[in-house]
Amino acid sequence: MGFRERLKVFSFPFPPPLIPRTRQVLIYWIGYTVVDIVDSGETAIEKATELRPDLVLIDIKLRGGMDGIEAAVEIWNCLQIPFIYITAYSDKSTVERATLTLTCGYIIKPISQQNLYVAIQTALNIIRNKQAELVLSKAYEELKIKVKNYTTKLDLVNDELKL
After folding, report:
1. What fold does the segment set 3-133 form as a domain?
2. Using one digit for the tens of pLDDT, what is the confidence trace for 111-123?
3. Distance between CA atoms of 7 and 99, rounded to whole angstroms?
4. pLDDT at 162
5. For residue 95, what are the contacts with CB-CB under 8 A and spacing of at least 6?
């Protein structure tokens, strides 16, 4: 099973109530599973911790005391789960605030199937690149240790040969 088929998406509703279901169907139609839909930042952090989705789609305006930007930053800082903003807000201050975060995308409502697909595909590439970077980093660290050990052994053998 490829990464695309197992991608779990965590989503936030848009008003009116019909829209979350429409988005869930849209996300499913382009090949992904929606694991939950919540409407507050606090609940988002709790559910993201519990469900560990591969990607979070998050609205900037949420219920409760925390907006989507604050929730996304908290989810990233605690869980390193990438996210895409989906919002009606495109004013300069909101966009600047959002782009200071490590977002994988920013979609202005109303969303289209094509825009959502492109944003998710872009996020997938970021996720894959990050995973590859982690694998390479681990291999590099292991190689550094091996080189250090072999260098130490060679130094010992070299010292013995000098005697």
Report:
1. Rossmann fold (3.40.50)
2. 887 888 889 889 8
3. 24
4. 83
5. 89, 106
81: DSSP letter: -
Q: Pull the structure tokens for residue 115.
A: 């825009």
Q: What's residue 114's pLDDT?
A: 84
For 56-65, letters b (16+ CB in 10 Å) and e give: bbbbbebeee
pTM for the structure as a whole = 0.72
Annotate 36-45 with b (16+ C-beta within 10 A) or e (fewer): bbbebbbbbb
Helix, strand and coil in the chain, % to nearest 5 = 60, 15, 25
Q: Spell out the domain ranges in the chain.
A: 3-133
Provide the residue type at 70 as one letter.
Answer: E
Question: Which of left, alpha, beta for 142 (phi over 0: left; psi -120 to 50: alpha)?
Answer: alpha
Within 10 Å of residue 25's Cβ, how many Cβ atoms? Answer: 11
Find the radius of gyration of the CA atoms of the chain.
22
Query: Highest-confidence range of 54-63, 79-88, 143-152, by mean pLDDT?
Result: 143-152
The CA–CA distances, whole Å, from 52 to 78, 107, 121, 154 equal 11, 22, 19, 46
